[in-house]
C-alpha cells in the first residue's frame, strides 16, 4: 500500500500551469547582409549589416562582431544606452584568401547575450 501511495505522489505535478516561471524575452541578432557563403576578392572592403532585437526585454546595449574567433568591432546605439531594435553597419577588410567565420552577438546592459549569429564568407585572390 505504501508503495502505491509513493508511486501516485511521484506522478503528481504540484506546479500549476500558471506558476512556472516564464523564460526571459528573446534577445536576437542576425546578419542582414551579406549572405552566408558570399564571395569577395582579397582587398575588398565589406560592409556588414546587423540587426539586433530585444523588443520585449530591456533593450540592446551593444553588438559585438568576431572574425575568425577574434574580436573585430563593437557597435552601440547612439540615441540611448539600450534600444529595442538596433541596426548597425560594420566593416571588414577581406585580406587573406579562404573561408572566414563572422559571428555577431547582441548584449543587454546587464551582460545577457543573445545566441550568436554566424556566417561564413569566402575570400578569393
Tell me the number of helical segments per DSSP (H or I, 4 or more residues long).
Answer: 1
Could you tell me how far the N terminus lies from the C terminus, measured between alpha carbons in angstroms? 78 Å
Radius of gyration from the CA trace?
22 Å
| Structural domain count | 1
Helix percentage range: under 10%
Helix-strand topology string: HEEEEEEEE
Strand order of the largest sheet: 2-8-7-4-5
Q: Key terms for this structure?
A:
125 residues; mainly beta; Immunoglobulin-like; 1 helix; 8 strands; 46% strand
Write the layout of secondary structure elements.
Elements: H1 2-11, E1 28-33, E2 39-41, E3 45-53, E4 62-67, E5 70-75, E6 85-93, E7 98-107, E8 117-124
Parallel strand pairs: 2-8
Antiparallel strand pairs: 1-3, 3-6, 4-5, 4-7, 7-8
Describe the structure.
- The protein is mainly beta.
- It has a single domain, classed as Immunoglobulins (Immunoglobulin-like, Sandwich).
- The chain is built from one helix and eight strands; from the N terminus they run αββββββββ.
- A five-stranded mixed β-sheet has the order 2-8-7-4-5, with no helix packed on it. The protein has a three-stranded antiparallel β-sheet with strand order 1-3-6, with no helix packed on it.
- The longest helix has 10 residues, at 2-11.
- It is elongated and about 55 Å long.
- Mean pLDDT is 88; it is low at 5-9.
Amino acid at each position: 500500500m505504501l508503495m502505491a501511495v509513493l508511486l501516485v505522489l511521484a506522478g503528481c505535478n504540484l506546479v500549476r500551469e500558471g506558476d512556472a516561471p516564464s523564460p526571459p524575452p528573446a534577445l536576437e541578432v542576425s546578419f542582414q547582409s551579406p549572405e552566408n557563403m558570399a564571395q569577395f576578392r582579397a582587398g575588398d572592403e565589406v560592409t556588414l549589416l546587423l540587426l539586433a532585437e530585444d523588443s520585449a526585454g530591456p533593450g540592446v546595449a551593444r553588438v559585438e562582431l568576431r572574425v575568425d574567433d577574434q574580436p573585430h568591432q563593437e557597435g552601440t546605439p547612439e540615441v540611448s544606452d539600450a534600444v529595442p531594435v538596433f541596426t548597425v553597419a560594420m566593416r571588414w577588410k577581406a585580406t587573406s584568401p579562404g573561408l572566414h567565420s563572422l559571428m555577431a552577438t547582441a548584449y543587454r546592459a546587464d551582460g545577457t547575450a543573445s545566441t550568436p549569429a554566424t556566417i561564413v564568407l569566402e575570400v578569393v585572390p
